[in-house]
Design a protein that fits this description.
The chain is mainly alpha-helical. The protein has one domain. The chain is built from 10 helices and no strands. The chain is globular and about 50 Å long. The two termini are 28 Å apart.
Protein backbone atom coordinates (compact mmCIF):
# COMPACT_ATOMS: atom_id res chain seq x y z
CA UNK A 1 0.00 0.00 0.00
CA UNK A 2 1.46 3.43 -0.96
CA UNK A 3 2.44 5.61 1.99
CA UNK A 4 0.17 8.64 1.60
CA UNK A 5 -0.51 11.44 4.09
CA UNK A 6 -3.93 11.70 5.73
CA UNK A 7 -4.80 14.82 3.70
CA UNK A 8 -3.98 12.92 0.50
CA UNK A 9 -6.40 10.13 1.39
CA UNK A 10 -9.10 12.69 2.18
CA UNK A 11 -8.64 14.34 -1.23
CA UNK A 12 -8.70 10.98 -3.01
CA UNK A 13 -11.88 10.04 -1.16
CA UNK A 14 -13.51 13.33 -2.21
CA UNK A 15 -12.42 12.71 -5.79
CA UNK A 16 -13.89 9.21 -5.65
CA UNK A 17 -17.25 10.55 -4.46
CA UNK A 18 -17.15 13.04 -7.35
CA UNK A 19 -16.54 10.16 -9.77
CA UNK A 20 -19.65 8.36 -8.52
CA UNK A 21 -21.82 11.48 -8.67
CA UNK A 22 -20.57 12.40 -12.15
CA UNK A 23 -21.54 8.99 -13.51
CA UNK A 24 -25.09 8.92 -12.16
CA UNK A 25 -26.06 12.59 -12.08
CA UNK A 26 -23.63 15.22 -13.41
CA UNK A 27 -21.63 14.21 -16.51
CA UNK A 28 -18.59 16.40 -17.00
CA UNK A 29 -17.90 16.57 -13.28
CA UNK A 30 -15.42 13.72 -13.60
CA UNK A 31 -12.81 16.20 -14.79
CA UNK A 32 -12.76 17.62 -11.26
CA UNK A 33 -11.83 14.15 -10.00
CA UNK A 34 -9.10 13.89 -12.63
CA UNK A 35 -7.65 17.15 -11.31
CA UNK A 36 -7.73 15.91 -7.69
CA UNK A 37 -6.04 12.60 -8.47
CA UNK A 38 -3.37 14.30 -10.59
CA UNK A 39 -2.62 16.67 -7.69
CA UNK A 40 -2.06 13.79 -5.24
CA UNK A 41 -0.51 11.01 -7.33
CA UNK A 42 2.16 10.97 -10.06
CA UNK A 43 0.62 11.76 -13.45
CA UNK A 44 0.84 8.29 -15.03
CA UNK A 45 -0.19 6.49 -11.86
CA UNK A 46 -3.16 8.80 -11.36
CA UNK A 47 -4.45 7.99 -14.86
CA UNK A 48 -4.42 4.25 -14.27
CA UNK A 49 -5.79 4.50 -10.74
CA UNK A 50 -8.74 6.65 -11.73
CA UNK A 51 -9.53 4.46 -14.76
CA UNK A 52 -10.40 1.47 -12.58
CA UNK A 53 -12.58 3.63 -10.31
CA UNK A 54 -14.36 5.02 -13.36
CA UNK A 55 -15.22 1.46 -14.39
CA UNK A 56 -16.73 0.76 -10.97
CA UNK A 57 -18.87 3.89 -11.27
CA UNK A 58 -19.78 2.96 -14.85
CA UNK A 59 -21.22 -0.35 -13.61
CA UNK A 60 -23.53 1.52 -11.23
CA UNK A 61 -24.54 3.94 -13.97
CA UNK A 62 -25.43 1.32 -16.59
CA UNK A 63 -27.41 -0.61 -13.97
CA UNK A 64 -29.30 2.49 -12.89
CA UNK A 65 -30.15 3.75 -16.38
CA UNK A 66 -30.30 0.45 -18.32
CA UNK A 67 -33.76 1.37 -19.66
CA UNK A 68 -32.73 4.83 -20.86
CA UNK A 69 -30.17 4.19 -23.60
CA UNK A 70 -30.11 5.52 -27.16
CA UNK A 71 -28.26 2.67 -28.89
CA UNK A 72 -28.50 4.31 -32.32
CA UNK A 73 -26.50 7.27 -31.01
CA UNK A 74 -23.83 4.93 -29.61
CA UNK A 75 -23.50 2.95 -32.83
CA UNK A 76 -23.21 6.18 -34.79
CA UNK A 77 -20.34 7.32 -32.55
CA UNK A 78 -18.40 4.05 -32.50
CA UNK A 79 -16.23 4.35 -35.68
CA UNK A 80 -15.15 7.90 -34.85
CA UNK A 81 -14.32 6.95 -31.26
CA UNK A 82 -12.00 4.17 -32.48
CA UNK A 83 -10.21 6.69 -34.70
CA UNK A 84 -9.94 9.10 -31.76
CA UNK A 85 -8.45 6.41 -29.52
CA UNK A 86 -5.82 5.61 -32.15
CA UNK A 87 -4.97 9.31 -32.54
CA UNK A 88 -4.69 9.62 -28.75
CA UNK A 89 -2.24 6.73 -28.54
CA UNK A 90 -0.12 8.26 -31.31
CA UNK A 91 -0.26 11.71 -29.71
CA UNK A 92 1.01 10.35 -26.38
CA UNK A 93 4.20 9.23 -28.08
CA UNK A 94 5.13 12.74 -29.23
CA UNK A 95 3.57 15.19 -26.74
CA UNK A 96 4.46 16.00 -23.14
CA UNK A 97 1.90 16.32 -20.33
CA UNK A 98 1.68 20.12 -20.54
CA UNK A 99 0.92 20.13 -24.26
CA UNK A 100 -1.67 17.38 -23.83
CA UNK A 101 -3.54 19.29 -21.11
CA UNK A 102 -3.58 22.56 -23.01
CA UNK A 103 -4.67 21.03 -26.29
CA UNK A 104 -7.56 19.21 -24.61
CA UNK A 105 -8.54 22.31 -22.63
CA UNK A 106 -8.61 24.40 -25.80
CA UNK A 107 -10.71 21.77 -27.56
CA UNK A 108 -13.22 21.70 -24.69
CA UNK A 109 -13.70 25.48 -24.73
CA UNK A 110 -14.17 25.37 -28.50
CA UNK A 111 -16.76 22.61 -28.10
CA UNK A 112 -18.72 24.61 -25.50
CA UNK A 113 -18.73 27.74 -27.66
CA UNK A 114 -19.79 25.73 -30.71
CA UNK A 115 -22.60 23.97 -28.84
CA UNK A 116 -23.96 27.20 -27.36
CA UNK A 117 -23.76 28.93 -30.75
CA UNK A 118 -25.80 26.13 -32.33
CA UNK A 119 -28.42 26.46 -29.61
CA UNK A 120 -28.57 30.21 -30.07
CA UNK A 121 -29.16 29.63 -33.79
CA UNK A 122 -31.85 27.08 -32.86
CA UNK A 123 -30.11 24.07 -34.39
CA UNK A 124 -29.49 20.57 -33.04
CA UNK A 125 -27.23 17.67 -34.00
CA UNK A 126 -30.39 15.78 -34.84
CA UNK A 127 -31.16 18.06 -37.80
CA UNK A 128 -30.31 17.13 -41.37
CA UNK A 129 -26.78 16.36 -42.53
CA UNK A 130 -25.21 17.85 -39.41
CA UNK A 131 -26.26 14.72 -37.51
CA UNK A 132 -23.49 12.52 -38.97
CA UNK A 133 -20.95 15.33 -39.01
CA UNK A 134 -21.47 15.99 -35.30
CA UNK A 135 -21.13 12.27 -34.47
CA UNK A 136 -17.81 12.10 -36.33
CA UNK A 137 -16.46 15.31 -34.76
CA UNK A 138 -17.51 14.64 -31.18
CA UNK A 139 -16.75 10.92 -31.38
CA UNK A 140 -13.20 11.51 -32.58
CA UNK A 141 -12.59 14.16 -29.93
CA UNK A 142 -14.11 11.92 -27.27
CA UNK A 143 -11.87 8.98 -28.17
CA UNK A 144 -8.80 11.21 -28.30
CA UNK A 145 -9.38 12.98 -25.00
CA UNK A 146 -10.31 9.84 -23.07
CA UNK A 147 -7.15 8.09 -24.19
CA UNK A 148 -4.73 10.87 -23.30
CA UNK A 149 -6.28 12.22 -20.10
CA UNK A 150 -9.51 10.42 -19.06
CA UNK A 151 -11.14 13.73 -20.01
CA UNK A 152 -13.79 12.74 -22.54
CA UNK A 153 -16.64 13.48 -20.13
CA UNK A 154 -16.98 17.16 -21.04
CA UNK A 155 -16.64 16.49 -24.78
CA UNK A 156 -19.33 13.83 -24.89
CA UNK A 157 -21.53 15.80 -22.52
CA UNK A 158 -21.61 18.56 -25.10
CA UNK A 159 -22.62 16.07 -27.80
CA UNK A 160 -25.47 14.58 -25.78
CA UNK A 161 -26.49 18.07 -24.66
CA UNK A 162 -26.61 19.30 -28.25
CA UNK A 163 -28.72 16.24 -29.14
CA UNK A 164 -31.32 17.47 -26.61
CA UNK A 165 -31.52 14.16 -24.72
CA UNK A 166 -33.76 14.17 -21.62
CA UNK A 167 -31.83 13.83 -18.35
CA UNK A 168 -32.16 10.05 -17.93
CA UNK A 169 -31.58 9.24 -21.60
CA UNK A 170 -28.53 11.52 -21.47
CA UNK A 171 -27.21 9.68 -18.41
CA UNK A 172 -28.01 6.20 -19.71
CA UNK A 173 -26.42 6.73 -23.12
CA UNK A 174 -23.37 8.39 -21.59
CA UNK A 175 -23.07 5.54 -19.05
CA UNK A 176 -22.85 2.84 -21.69
CA UNK A 177 -20.57 4.95 -23.88
CA UNK A 178 -18.01 5.43 -21.11
CA UNK A 179 -18.27 1.88 -19.79
CA UNK A 180 -17.44 0.40 -23.21
CA UNK A 181 -14.69 2.95 -23.91
CA UNK A 182 -13.07 2.65 -20.48
CA UNK A 183 -13.17 -1.14 -20.68
CA UNK A 184 -11.40 -1.05 -24.04
CA UNK A 185 -8.66 1.16 -22.54
CA UNK A 186 -7.69 -1.32 -19.80
CA UNK A 187 -5.36 -3.57 -21.87
CA UNK A 188 -3.61 -0.55 -23.42
CA UNK A 189 -3.17 1.08 -20.02
CA UNK A 190 -1.84 -2.14 -18.50
CA UNK A 191 0.57 -2.60 -21.40
CA UNK A 192 1.89 0.94 -21.00
CA UNK A 193 2.45 0.39 -17.26
CA UNK A 194 -0.17 2.99 -16.32
CA UNK A 195 -2.20 0.51 -14.26
CA UNK A 196 0.02 -0.55 -11.34
CA UNK A 197 -0.28 -2.77 -8.27
CA UNK A 198 0.00 0.20 -5.84
CA UNK A 199 -2.72 1.97 -7.83
CA UNK A 200 -5.02 -1.05 -7.58
CA UNK A 201 -4.46 -1.20 -3.81
CA UNK A 202 -5.48 2.46 -3.57
CA UNK A 203 -8.59 1.64 -5.62
CA UNK A 204 -9.61 -1.08 -3.16
CA UNK A 205 -9.66 1.50 -0.38
CA UNK A 206 -11.57 4.06 -2.44
CA UNK A 207 -14.29 1.86 -3.98
CA UNK A 208 -16.75 2.51 -1.08
CA UNK A 209 -16.45 6.27 -1.71
CA UNK A 210 -17.27 5.72 -5.39
CA UNK A 211 -20.32 3.66 -4.45
CA UNK A 212 -21.48 6.36 -2.02
CA UNK A 213 -21.10 8.99 -4.75
CA UNK A 214 -23.03 6.87 -7.25
CA UNK A 215 -25.92 6.44 -4.81
CA UNK A 216 -25.91 10.17 -4.07
CA UNK A 217 -26.01 10.82 -7.81
CA UNK A 218 -29.08 8.63 -8.21
CA UNK A 219 -30.87 10.73 -5.61
CA UNK A 220 -29.86 13.96 -7.37
CA UNK A 221 -30.85 12.72 -10.84
CA UNK A 222 -34.39 11.91 -9.72
CA UNK A 223 -34.88 15.48 -8.52
CA UNK A 224 -32.92 17.73 -10.86
CA UNK A 225 -34.64 20.06 -13.34
CA UNK A 226 -33.73 19.68 -17.05
CA UNK A 227 -32.67 23.32 -17.44
CA UNK A 228 -30.55 23.24 -14.27
CA UNK A 229 -29.02 19.95 -15.39
CA UNK A 230 -27.95 21.40 -18.73
CA UNK A 231 -26.50 24.52 -17.11
CA UNK A 232 -24.50 22.46 -14.62
CA UNK A 233 -23.11 20.31 -17.44
CA UNK A 234 -21.91 23.43 -19.27
CA UNK A 235 -20.37 24.97 -16.12
CA UNK A 236 -18.55 21.75 -15.19
CA UNK A 237 -17.25 21.44 -18.74
CA UNK A 238 -15.83 24.97 -18.61
CA UNK A 239 -14.25 24.32 -15.19
CA UNK A 240 -12.59 21.20 -16.55
CA UNK A 241 -11.33 23.02 -19.64
CA UNK A 242 -9.86 25.90 -17.62
CA UNK A 243 -8.12 23.45 -15.27
CA UNK A 244 -6.56 21.58 -18.17
CA UNK A 245 -5.28 24.81 -19.74
CA UNK A 246 -3.96 26.44 -16.56
CA UNK A 247 -3.19 23.40 -14.41
Amino acid sequence: MPDLAAWAWVLLAVGSVVIGVSKTALPGGGTVAVAIFAAVLPARESTGTILLLLLVADLFAITTYRRHVNWRALLRLAPAVVVGLALGIAFLFVADDELVRRVIGGVLIAVVVFTLARRWLRHSVEEGGSHRVAAVAYGTLGGFTTMVANAAGPVMSMYFLAARFPVKEFLGTAAWFFFLVNLSKVPFSAGLGIITVPGMLIDLVLVPAVVAGALLGRWIANRIDQVLFERLVIVLTLVGAIYLILG
